[in-house]
Structure formats: structure tokens, C-alpha cells
Amino acid sequence: MYSPKKLGLKIKEARERRAKRSGRPFSQKMLAFKIGETSKWVQRLEKGQFYPEWDALELIADTCGVTIEFLTGEDFKNELEYEEAIKGGQVARTIDQKELYL
Predict the structure, then answer these.
(1) What is the pTM of this model?
(2) How far apart are the C-alpha atoms of 66 and 89, rounded to whole Å?
(3) HSE-up of 94 (CA within 13 Å, CB side)?
(4) Which residues contact 13 (CB under 8 A, 6 or more apart)?
(5) Which of 48, 57, 66, 99 has the least C-beta neighbours within 10 A?
(6) What's the angle, vertex CA 64, arms to CA 87 and CA 49, rounded to 5?
(7) Closest-CA residue to 31 (of 54, 57, 64)
(8) Where are the alpha helices (DSSP H) in 23-93?
(9) How far, in Å, CA of 63 to CA of 60, rounded?
């Protein structure tokens, strides 16, 4: 899982890709409008100040025409896996007891 800063850069990249594909600008304000957030929220997100909630991440991916895997660098199967990974604002990984003794 990316850090919030890298996730923010990937979201910005996704927004810029959408603009390039459409041949028209796609600003932070436009993304904010499409996903029901404020432009300030998108600005803070792209600066890497926080992780978005799963629903917002899905909306961003759909709106920009990318996958959640593109944005996060991981293939999360559901919201629970994502929430576990961002717990405490950091990467959270669990290690199975069997893996400790390999």
C-alpha cells in the first residue's frame, strides 16, 4: 500500500490521465464536483494529507477511468482489506503465525 503522499500523487496522475484522454481539462474542482466533495478536500488528498474512505476511492477510480489497484498499488478485494491496510494512517500488515516459523 502506498503512503498517503504517493496515493495522492497517483490520484493526481489519474485525474491528469482523464484530462489527456478527453482532450479537456479536468481540475481538482471538477473531480470534487463529480464525487461530491469540495475542491479543498481533493487538494488535501492530492497533497497526501490523508487516506480517503473506500467509497470515495471507488468514486475517484470510476470517475478517472482507472482501477483501485492503479491508485493504491494493491489489489484490494473489498473495503475491509483496504481499511485494514490504512489503519492508523500507516500500512498495517498481519502475519500469520505459520509464516513466523518459515
Answers:
(1) 0.82
(2) 23
(3) 8
(4) none
(5) 99
(6) 35
(7) 64
(8) 28-35, 39-46, 54-64, 68-72, 79-86
(9) 5
**Integer Rg of the chain from CA:** 15
Tell me the C-alpha distance between 88 and 30, whole Å. 29
The CA distances from residue 79 to 37, 62, 86, in Å, are: 20, 16, 11
Rounded distance, CA 56 to CA 60, Å? Answer: 6
Q: Which of 74, 76, 57, 77 minimizes the C-alpha distance to 14?
A: 57
For residues 8 and 49, give the distance between their C-alpha atoms in angstroms, rounded to a whole number: 8
Q: Which residue has the cell 473489498?
A: 78
Q: Degrees (nearest 5) of the Cα angle 92, 78, 75? A: 70
Low-confidence ranges of the chain (pLDDT < 50): 90-95, 100, 102
